[in-house]
Amino acid sequence: MLADEIAKLLLEKGAVKINLEEPFTWTSGIRSPIYCDNRALVSSVDAREEILAGFLQKIKESGIEFDAVAGVATGAIAFGMLVADRLKKPFVYVRLEPRDHGTGKQVEGSLEKNSKVLVIEDLFSTAGSTVKAVAALRSEISAEVVGVVAISTYEFEKAAARLEEAEVKWWTLTNFTAIVGQLEISDDEKKAVLEFSADPSGWFANFSKK
Description:
Radius of gyration: 17 Å
Number of domains: 1
Shape: globular
Distance between the termini: 35 Å
Structural class: alpha/beta
Largest sheet: 6 strands, mixed
Strand content: 15-25%
CATH topology: Rossmann fold
Strand order of the largest sheet: 7-6-5-8-9-10
Number of strands: 10
Oligomer: single chain
CATH architecture: 3-Layer(aba) Sandwich
CATH class: Alpha Beta
Protein backbone atom coordinates (compact mmCIF):
# COMPACT_ATOMS: atom_id res chain seq x y z
CA MET A 1 0.00 0.00 0.00
CA LEU A 2 1.45 3.35 -1.08
CA ALA A 3 0.67 5.20 2.17
CA ASP A 4 2.54 2.63 4.26
CA GLU A 5 5.48 2.44 1.84
CA ILE A 6 5.97 6.22 1.81
CA ALA A 7 5.51 6.44 5.60
CA LYS A 8 8.26 3.87 6.06
CA LEU A 9 10.53 5.79 3.68
CA LEU A 10 10.01 9.08 5.56
CA LEU A 11 10.98 7.42 8.83
CA GLU A 12 13.98 5.57 7.37
CA LYS A 13 15.36 8.78 5.80
CA GLY A 14 14.86 10.86 8.93
CA ALA A 15 12.25 13.13 7.38
CA VAL A 16 9.96 12.34 10.30
CA LYS A 17 11.09 12.42 13.91
CA ILE A 18 9.11 11.42 17.00
CA ASN A 19 9.87 12.51 20.56
CA LEU A 20 7.35 12.12 23.37
CA GLU A 21 9.87 12.89 26.12
CA GLU A 22 10.86 16.30 24.72
CA PRO A 23 8.16 17.38 22.23
CA PHE A 24 9.20 19.67 19.39
CA THR A 25 8.28 23.36 19.38
CA TRP A 26 6.91 24.60 16.07
CA THR A 27 7.28 28.19 14.83
CA SER A 28 3.65 28.73 15.80
CA GLY A 29 4.46 27.77 19.39
CA ILE A 30 2.61 24.45 19.18
CA ARG A 31 4.31 21.64 21.12
CA SER A 32 4.27 18.48 19.05
CA PRO A 33 5.42 14.85 19.44
CA ILE A 34 6.21 14.76 15.72
CA TYR A 35 8.32 16.84 13.37
CA CYS A 36 8.19 16.33 9.62
CA ASP A 37 10.67 17.87 7.19
CA ASN A 38 10.34 16.29 3.76
CA ARG A 39 13.13 18.50 2.42
CA ALA A 40 15.47 15.94 3.98
CA LEU A 41 14.54 13.58 1.14
CA VAL A 42 16.08 15.61 -1.70
CA SER A 43 19.64 14.49 -0.90
CA SER A 44 18.84 10.80 -1.33
CA VAL A 45 18.74 9.40 -4.87
CA ASP A 46 16.61 6.39 -3.96
CA ALA A 47 14.23 8.52 -1.86
CA ARG A 48 13.73 10.95 -4.74
CA GLU A 49 12.96 8.05 -7.08
CA GLU A 50 10.45 6.52 -4.65
CA ILE A 51 8.72 9.82 -3.98
CA LEU A 52 8.55 10.58 -7.71
CA ALA A 53 7.10 7.13 -8.39
CA GLY A 54 4.53 7.79 -5.65
CA PHE A 55 3.50 11.09 -7.21
CA LEU A 56 3.17 9.51 -10.65
CA GLN A 57 1.07 6.68 -9.24
CA LYS A 58 -1.24 9.05 -7.35
CA ILE A 59 -1.61 11.31 -10.39
CA LYS A 60 -2.52 8.34 -12.58
CA GLU A 61 -4.99 6.95 -10.05
CA SER A 62 -6.72 10.31 -9.61
CA GLY A 63 -7.19 10.81 -13.34
CA ILE A 64 -6.12 14.45 -13.15
CA GLU A 65 -5.58 16.19 -16.49
CA PHE A 66 -3.30 19.23 -16.52
CA ASP A 67 -1.10 21.39 -18.71
CA ALA A 68 1.59 22.34 -16.21
CA VAL A 69 3.01 21.68 -12.75
CA ALA A 70 3.60 24.17 -9.94
CA GLY A 71 5.78 23.58 -6.88
CA VAL A 72 5.20 25.47 -3.64
CA ALA A 73 8.31 27.12 -2.19
CA THR A 74 10.49 25.98 -0.79
CA GLY A 75 9.91 22.37 0.13
CA ALA A 76 8.06 21.30 -3.00
CA ILE A 77 10.11 23.02 -5.69
CA ALA A 78 12.43 20.04 -6.20
CA PHE A 79 9.64 17.47 -6.21
CA GLY A 80 7.44 19.57 -8.48
CA MET A 81 10.26 19.92 -10.98
CA LEU A 82 10.89 16.16 -10.90
CA VAL A 83 7.24 15.49 -11.70
CA ALA A 84 7.15 18.10 -14.46
CA ASP A 85 10.38 16.81 -15.98
CA ARG A 86 9.24 13.18 -16.03
CA LEU A 87 5.86 14.11 -17.54
CA LYS A 88 7.39 16.68 -19.94
CA LYS A 89 5.21 19.48 -18.61
CA PRO A 90 6.02 23.18 -18.10
CA PHE A 91 6.96 24.09 -14.53
CA VAL A 92 6.60 27.14 -12.28
CA TYR A 93 7.11 27.64 -8.60
CA VAL A 94 5.14 29.78 -6.19
CA ARG A 95 6.79 31.94 -3.55
CA LEU A 96 5.30 32.11 -0.07
CA GLU A 97 4.91 35.87 -0.55
CA PRO A 98 5.18 38.20 -3.59
CA ARG A 99 8.61 39.70 -4.22
CA ASP A 100 9.05 43.02 -2.44
CA HIS A 101 11.01 44.46 -5.36
CA GLY A 102 11.15 44.29 -9.17
CA THR A 103 7.97 42.93 -10.71
CA GLY A 104 6.45 41.88 -7.39
CA LYS A 105 5.67 38.45 -8.79
CA GLN A 106 4.75 35.50 -6.62
CA VAL A 107 4.65 32.92 -9.41
CA GLU A 108 8.08 32.36 -10.94
CA GLY A 109 8.18 31.01 -14.47
CA SER A 110 5.96 31.47 -17.47
CA LEU A 111 2.68 29.78 -18.35
CA GLU A 112 -0.11 30.55 -20.75
CA LYS A 113 -3.17 32.17 -19.23
CA ASN A 114 -5.93 29.77 -18.17
CA SER A 115 -3.52 26.81 -18.02
CA LYS A 116 -4.69 23.79 -16.06
CA VAL A 117 -2.16 23.50 -13.25
CA LEU A 118 -1.40 20.66 -10.84
CA VAL A 119 0.20 21.88 -7.61
CA ILE A 120 2.82 19.78 -5.82
CA GLU A 121 3.29 20.22 -2.05
CA ASP A 122 5.65 18.55 0.38
CA LEU A 123 3.39 18.65 3.44
CA PHE A 124 -0.05 19.77 4.62
CA SER A 125 -0.04 21.14 8.15
CA THR A 126 -2.70 23.87 8.30
CA ALA A 127 -2.59 24.22 4.46
CA GLY A 128 -2.12 27.99 4.75
CA SER A 129 0.80 28.12 2.31
CA THR A 130 -1.03 25.84 -0.10
CA VAL A 131 -4.12 28.04 -0.22
CA LYS A 132 -1.94 31.14 -0.75
CA ALA A 133 -0.15 29.39 -3.63
CA VAL A 134 -3.45 28.42 -5.24
CA ALA A 135 -4.71 31.99 -4.91
CA ALA A 136 -1.51 33.35 -6.50
CA LEU A 137 -1.79 30.98 -9.46
CA ARG A 138 -5.39 31.96 -9.99
CA SER A 139 -4.79 35.71 -9.73
CA GLU A 140 -1.44 36.08 -11.55
CA ILE A 141 -1.92 33.72 -14.47
CA SER A 142 -5.65 32.96 -14.34
CA ALA A 143 -4.75 29.32 -13.79
CA GLU A 144 -7.31 26.59 -13.37
CA VAL A 145 -5.88 24.70 -10.40
CA VAL A 146 -7.02 21.12 -10.95
CA GLY A 147 -5.69 19.80 -7.66
CA VAL A 148 -2.88 19.57 -5.14
CA VAL A 149 -0.84 16.46 -4.39
CA ALA A 150 1.35 16.42 -1.28
CA ILE A 151 3.78 13.90 0.10
CA SER A 152 2.17 13.82 3.54
CA THR A 153 -0.35 15.44 5.86
CA TYR A 154 -0.73 15.87 9.61
CA GLU A 155 -4.47 15.30 9.00
CA PHE A 156 -5.51 18.49 10.78
CA GLU A 157 -9.19 19.34 10.36
CA LYS A 158 -8.16 22.96 9.75
CA ALA A 159 -6.20 21.94 6.65
CA ALA A 160 -9.10 19.99 5.17
CA ALA A 161 -11.47 22.89 5.87
CA ARG A 162 -9.16 25.44 4.23
CA LEU A 163 -8.71 23.33 1.11
CA GLU A 164 -12.45 22.78 0.84
CA GLU A 165 -13.09 26.50 1.24
CA ALA A 166 -10.55 27.20 -1.51
CA GLU A 167 -12.46 24.74 -3.72
CA VAL A 168 -9.41 22.66 -4.53
CA LYS A 169 -9.16 18.89 -4.77
CA TRP A 170 -6.26 17.29 -2.92
CA TRP A 171 -4.47 14.00 -2.46
CA THR A 172 -1.47 12.78 -0.45
CA LEU A 173 1.00 9.93 -0.80
CA THR A 174 0.88 9.16 2.90
CA ASN A 175 -0.62 10.57 6.09
CA PHE A 176 -0.19 10.99 9.82
CA THR A 177 -2.05 7.78 10.67
CA ALA A 178 0.07 5.68 8.32
CA ILE A 179 3.28 7.21 9.70
CA VAL A 180 2.29 6.46 13.30
CA GLY A 181 1.38 2.94 12.25
CA GLN A 182 4.98 2.37 11.14
CA LEU A 183 6.48 3.50 14.46
CA GLU A 184 8.17 0.89 16.63
CA ILE A 185 6.70 2.15 19.88
CA SER A 186 4.08 0.83 22.33
CA ASP A 187 0.36 1.02 21.60
CA ASP A 188 -0.05 3.57 24.42
CA GLU A 189 2.64 5.76 22.86
CA LYS A 190 1.01 5.46 19.44
CA LYS A 191 -2.30 6.52 20.98
CA ALA A 192 -0.63 9.54 22.57
CA VAL A 193 0.92 10.58 19.25
CA LEU A 194 -2.35 10.10 17.34
CA GLU A 195 -4.15 12.36 19.82
CA PHE A 196 -1.98 15.24 18.58
CA SER A 197 -3.63 15.28 15.15
CA ALA A 198 -7.07 15.65 16.72
CA ASP A 199 -6.07 18.58 18.96
CA PRO A 200 -2.69 20.07 17.94
CA SER A 201 -3.06 23.24 20.00
CA GLY A 202 -4.19 21.54 23.20
CA TRP A 203 -2.24 18.30 22.90
CA PHE A 204 0.81 19.25 24.98
CA ALA A 205 -1.21 20.59 27.93
CA ASN A 206 -3.30 17.43 28.04
CA PHE A 207 -0.34 15.12 27.50
CA SER A 208 1.79 16.72 30.21
CA LYS A 209 -0.99 16.15 32.76
CA LYS A 210 -0.91 12.38 32.23
